[in-house]
């Protein structure tokens, strides 16, 4: 089942990793993948590219998701790697601090944190979605802001510490994509470049 | 044809630049807390050809994430996963147990690095300037020491505090650290025993008789520096009453309603405070006392042989507030108040100290800098010298604040590299800089035992193992000897 993956790895000459696949059981193989992508960011890119080329036929991904509980560390493989089925995805637009617009199609049920991490969009999520920081602060298009559920006290406590807080600010880890959020635009505010936001979409 | 030719040239150029073996940018980072790690993370991300060596005075990494974050806030420690990712990068090296300014000099570093980031934080505490502050009165210590003690900081492993002799603790200062120490004193030991709080601290807290914590500030309720999450946690402590000067609070809220309504964080904080004033059931209590500046620490006299030299009370000036809201000052009214207490924790902030070779602004307690680039006394940029975190902007803010601040320093470093700005010049022209490859042997020669990241992973594994046996996330080694012992076996 790993032959396609092995082929890819061999072409990339990552033989040490591919060899390990020949000798171990499934769980160990998954551990190897985890270690491999955790080693450095380049590995992560290679790995993601491999997945792109093999499309969603690649089986172990869902297994990695199942194994997430076994690992204390973050796994880079998110649901996004399996692209949503035709007609089932929801569109999300990001406006980066530089003013660039990035459009992605995501699955219903993914949080904005999941989406940014899967696509390498620059949004730091320091506490990894545990409502202990405000680093994934985003500014939501007012049209969509009202569709979201009210933030909890805990989320508001963290938002109070966010830089450039606006009327439509939310934490990215708390916004979960739904069908009716299709087409949502969120702006990633800049904390270091002193850009002033007025709570409106920057376009 | 011409187009193809241009394309070939461009491709070649690109190929060439991508594979040219130019010597890497060698960066030393002093301190392995959030400021150091976030700076390293951003530089590694934005400048591929970098080699980073991070020096840490303690044997183990992560600074205040390990030794400052409250044990009952494990979610805050998730930032360590990002640091772990940095540490696994092949361009990163951790060198623990090396004290900059003692084991390692600026000259050593300058000879082997292109640039240095100082991110060693604020290792001291501010003093209050109170009478008898420097007398050896027992059961008075800084919150910094108390936090370090329960979090396993080697420096405070043997801090002597008696929590059995009194039912009341006074905390001076109204920031998040003050609430942290208050919360730890009032939280049930059963809850704490599930956290990574050190076993010896747990043992002391198990015997603790402290039921009342009084948190004192010199100004009023609108000038507190703690934040909503921490206040909410205090209000939600089980079996704990809350006392405050409700007349003062109501009056302050009423007279400043216009300003409060425009300031969302303040408004929410005051709502929590107001709501909490109805917490009137419980055998424990906590108090926010306003308008009090400490004047004198008072010890038991010698006529009480058991309690001699232990603190008995703190004498406070009673203040009133003057000036506009944004610049409120506390002015003494001339009246005094004595608060009886058997434990005093001073929580009025941290202080950085200038280490070897660094310019220092004594007033602000920081290394003078422009966006992280160190400036000399004439405000000239110092080539290749940078600063990040509390040493750069003062000991304030949460991890996220330090993160943005470290990113700013990293951006300045990368932009300096791209603009070919001068870095640390070479001593001798012919030898290339070697970084830790050259420094580690020097340290070993000086008899210093350096700790690598692999060593730390071994230590961490042992800590996790020891924690598992006690149903805790980890049991930290609080003595340097114990850490070394792990590596010897």
Automatic annotation (TrEMBL), chain A:
Organism whose genome encodes this protein: Glomus cerebriforme
Biological processes, Gene Ontology terms: P450-containing electron transport chain
2Fe-2S ferredoxin-type domain: residues covered: 90-192
Pfam families (UniProt xref): Fer2 (PF00111)
Protein name per the record: 2Fe-2S ferredoxin-type domain-containing protein
UniProt KW keywords: 2Fe-2S, Iron, Iron-sulfur, Metal-binding
Gene Ontology CC, one term: mitochondrion
Family affiliation: Belongs to the adrenodoxin/putidaredoxin family.
Recorded GO MF terms: 2 iron, 2 sulfur cluster binding; electron transfer activity; metal ion binding
Cofactor requirement: [2Fe-2S] cluster
PANTHER family: FERREDOXIN-2, MITOCHONDRIAL, FERREDOXIN/ADRENODOXIN
Automatic annotation (TrEMBL), chain B:
Compartments in which it is found: Mitochondrion
GO MF term (any one): oxidoreductase activity
Cofactor(s) recorded in Swiss-Prot or TrEMBL: FAD
Binding site for NADP(+): 174-177, 218-219, 230, 397
InterPro entries, per database record: FAD/NAD-bd_sf, Ferredox_Rdtase, Ferredox_Rdtase_adrenod
EC class name: oxidoreductase
Reaction catalysis annotation: 2 reduced [adrenodoxin] + NADP(+) + H(+) = 2 oxidized [adrenodoxin] + NADPH
Keywords for this protein: FAD, Flavoprotein, Mitochondrion, NADP, Oxidoreductase, Signal
EC code: 1.18.1.6
SUPFAM superfamilies (alphabetical): Nucleotide-binding domain
GO CC entries: mitochondrion
Signal peptide location: 1-18
Residues bound to FAD: 35, 56, 64, 390, 397-399
Main location: mitochondrion
PANTHER family: GLUTAMATE SYNTHASE 1 [NADH], CHLOROPLASTIC-LIKE
Protein's name according to its UniProt entry: NADPH:adrenodoxin oxidoreductase, mitochondrial
Organism: Glomus cerebriforme
